[in-house]
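Local shape tokens:
==================
===
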Amino acid sequence: MRRKTLIIAAAVLAVLVLLLAVVPPLLPLTAVKVGLAGDLERLAGGRVRLAALHFRLLPRPAFVLDDLAVEVREPGVLAGEPAFSCRCPRVVAGLAVTELLRGRFTLAVLRLEAPRFASRWGAAGGWRALGARLAEPAPAAGAEELPGDSLMTAGGSAPPWLRLARGLRLRVADGHWRLTGLPWLAGDLELRCWSGVYRLEPAGGGSLLRGGGELLGGRLEARFFWHRPEPAAALQLDGRLRLTGAVLRGLRLAAADSGPERLAVVQGTGDLLLELNGRLGEGFSLHWRAGVENLGAADHQGNPWLTGFTAASAATGYLAFREGYLNLKSARLDLPGDATVFSRGLIRYRGRLFTDLLNQVRVERLEALLAAVPVLGRRFGVLDGACAGEVNLVGNLEVNPVVRVRLTADRLAYRRPLAAAGGPPCSPRQTLGGLFAAATGGNFLGEVNLEIGRLDLCTASLRQLTLKARKRLNQLLVERLAAAVDGGKLRVSLAVDDLLAQPHWNGSLVLEKMDPLWLLPAWPFAGPLSGSLVLEGDLPAAGGRDAWLRTLQGSGSLTVDRGRVRPGKMSRFLFSFAPRLGLRAGDFTGPFTRLQLPVRLGGGRCYLRGFSLRGPWYRLRGDGTWNLAGRQLQLRGTIDYGRPGTAGRPAGGRLPHRGQFVVRGSLPALP
């Protein structure tokens, strides 16, 4: 009897095995396949292709889909790359056994093996288009509502013959995701070998996304959990995203309008940690840590932008999706050169980017920071030294930003831009002119307050430098620029108003016993220069330096006491009348008692009315004009003189000789 029972059991088992092997492939799934493809197309709002559909019983009842392809396009777009696409060689849809015994298809596990996703970034493209389709409620009634307003949360969108089980799990094995059209990124961003689990719970429960993969050559790990504390409450989200060992080499950054490539990252690694906690639709508290090591980048011509750039950042803040802003409560950025920036404030990203950030800055070695960012050195030159202060940025950085700067430094040294290496010597006059042009031509608004103990500017040194200036929408106002220069003092005030078609400026220059040679190396006189000038003019949009000189107007007086004539090309030109008097131009080279230059400027000319030069054996007086644009000089006057080397003047102080002099010609150019 026992043997007979075993034989019967073995026969039944053999029959069951035979049924499991033979019956599922014999099921008529052709109609089911066509209906499933149609349901998926209506669900996704795109095209769905399915090569084959099978049903299996072991290890658990499941539908098996072969070569699934999904394409979702933006409305009205029939050609080109789809907004979202998925290619999956095998999809296993596991069914709940207990529900299947009741005659119901209830999806419990959905497994995607080696899928390849692709999506485009954009307002209507990519995952946004697919998410909008899946979030549309289907006409089916009685479907369970899943928590959340995301891709997999609209349970009513399921086909009417399919239910979603409590605790539905979506498994992805060795997936690949390609995201195109990212702002400022010329290439695609790819997430490789991604494997994870997405667990869904009915209303009142929660959902969990957990997984990891390779991004930028590093390891990406993600864990997000969200649930609805109350039926009518917003979803509560807790998330953590970590990227370690990312290789940044190969990233190519481009303009926002998909223009030509701007720069490419040639080396560097990075890490990122991001943690979120909050409610969907309301906002999230966030914390992040990020850093880059040995970052290098160059433009399309090979010019380096960054070299060996290493930085680290840590911040906490609040991110509001609905209002579209990020409130930085505390942020720290460590940069090369022992530079540290502490920031707090607001960044509004919805619509036009808007910032209101207060940055406390401290830099111990400016030269090291600028060496890591050589593009700044090529454009603006290099500063050596240390500084500290505050920088406040308000507004859009491309459209009239407001910049408020307050910095102090003990000593700074300026070196000319690296691109000028091998060119003419660094000129303080050209450097100051470049800074003035940048200040008047920029579209920024702001205030600048600088206090520098010593500024070495090319061949000159400015000590106890203070600068207080404001830049408004239509006005640049330098309230105070004062410094000690070579034993003397320099003070400048300036106002530029561009309300008119030709921007107009006016200002004053006050000199107290300063040596002007650092500003005008070709100036033919040496000695302490004192005086003041009141100047004004227009800043033409075109025409260059000559057009600017033609608009120059002003007046003033300059005096040099107990100076000397410097031998040189310009001094020989000024005293070219000497041979007519039986003298040489070099006979005037030497000390003099006083030089006085009353100046009036207008119409592109400089008028010298009643200038005088007094020396130990001569006295020169006259008038003249100087064409500023063409550098044509005319001087006319009288000279009372003795002979060089004579001991003083005759009794009564009268010089024995008098003559007339005329000087005409092209004045050598001032460097």
User: Anything to note?
Assistant: Residues 123-156 have pLDDT under 50 and may be disordered. DSSP finds nine helices and 33 strands in the chain. The first helix runs from residue 2 to 26.
